[in-house]
Write a structure and sequence with these properties.
The chain is mainly α. It has a single domain, classed as Up-down Bundle (Ferritin). Helices cover 79% and strands 0% of the residues. It is built from six helices and no strands. Helix 2 packs antiparallel against helix 5, helix 3 runs antiparallel to helix 4 and helix 4 runs antiparallel to helix 5. The radius of gyration is 17 Å and the shape is elongated. Bound molecules: fe (iii) ion (FE) (3 copies). One fe (iii) ion binds next to helix 2, helix 4 and helix 5.
């Protein structure tokens, strides 16, 4: 893969994101199963559906290019998901594990936010306004998921967050 033009960079970036989404789609059911808090479980399940739609969006973008988005592995996502799997396998207090799962999930969302932000900006630079809008939609969903995870960890006016609850756990 050469990077002789912004078009090439654009395709490469989207393939990386496509690989990331495929890996996330495989990992989210396991994270949902491992989550103790009902809201966290549901949050992961909801984001699984969103991720499936996000992957489809990338497929659609590539259809427009007469290409397929596969053939690349996002190594960073491999690592981030591996860290999530490590948490799933660890024994311990379920609430502390939930706090750890939230942290792992936020690392995934932050990576996606960086990637989609880049892809969106390159699409706009290339004059692909429609694609930029589609990528912005996905970017908004990643931000929303990150916000929801923040709320679950930190709580709000009406409920204590998982982090506060986890303080009750004793070693
Ligand atoms: Fe995603
Ligand atoms: Fe990557
Ligand atoms: Fe996401």
């Amino acid at each position: 893969m050469k990077l002789n033009s912004m078009e090439m960079l654009y395709a490469d970036k989207l393939k990386d994101l496509y690989s990331a989404e495929q890996q996330i789609i495989e990992a989210l059911p396991k994270m949902a199963e491992a989550a103790a808090a009902k809201e966290l479980k549901q949050g992961f399940q909801k984001h699984l559906k969103q991720s499936q739609a996000q992957a489809k969006r990338i497929e659609k973008i590539f259809k427009g290019l007469g290409e397929k988005p596969d053939g690349k592995t996002c190594e960073a996502m491999k690592g981030l998901i591996k860290e999530g799997q490590e948490i799933i396998k660890m024994k311990g207090d379920p609430v502390v594990k939930d706090a750890a799962l939230i942290g792992a999930a936020q690392a995934i969302e932050h990576y996606e936010i960086a990637g989609y932000g880049t892809a969106r900006s390159i699409a706009a630079q290339l004059g692909f306004g429609d694609v930029a809008d589609i990528l912005q939609e996905t970017l908004d969903e990643e931000w929303e998921m990150n916000e929801q995870l923040n709320r679950l960890a930190l709580g709000d006016a009406s409920t204590a967050g998982i982090n506060e609850e986890a303080m009750m756990a004793e070693a």
